[in-house]
Amino acid sequence: MNFQQLPIPGLIEITPRRHGDERGYFAEIFRLDLFCQEAGEATFVQENESLSSRVGTIRGLHFQTEPFAQGKLVRCTAGAVFDVAVDLRAGSATFGRWAAVELTPEKGNQLWIPAGFAHGFCTLKPDTVINYKVTAYYSAQHDKGLAWNDPAIAIAWPALADAETLSAKDRVQPLLADLPAHFRMESQPCA
Fold it and tell me: Which purpose does this protein serve, as stated in its record (predicted)?
């Protein structure tokens, strides 16, 4: 596996090595020992799947607060997705900055997003499916969000991003300037 640190500390693109022949390929898509060496300790407790039928579907930006803050390991198993993480860790040199990776089944890459980040994506192909493992169970009480189009963050969404696809919840998420400091850089574990 190749672990590539993104410009924001903590975010890692993980690309498995594929061993192929005329039948197809084999790849290890997760190994706890290698993951812990590169990203730190994490215990995944839930796995989620999302299907978005329309191109340009925007989901997010979402996060959960303590004690249910989630680290996420995201991969795309059908279609393609522009996957985004925004640093929400107060005290971080990259607070309010974003990074994105295009995830595809052809590449087989994944994005590790530790707790302390908001996560969202835009589908690039129809019938896009993402799977993601999380380090804390879903908690409606701790489920929070951030405006996908906050001008202070200025995410360079793909031109096909369609605001009409936003859920009712995502249409009313607050701006970064209006969020309380849910996370602090010095107190954030890896997962």
Answer: Catalyzes the epimerization of the C3' and C5'positions of dTDP-6-deoxy-D-xylo-4-hexulose, forming dTDP-6-deoxy-L-lyxo-4-hexulose.
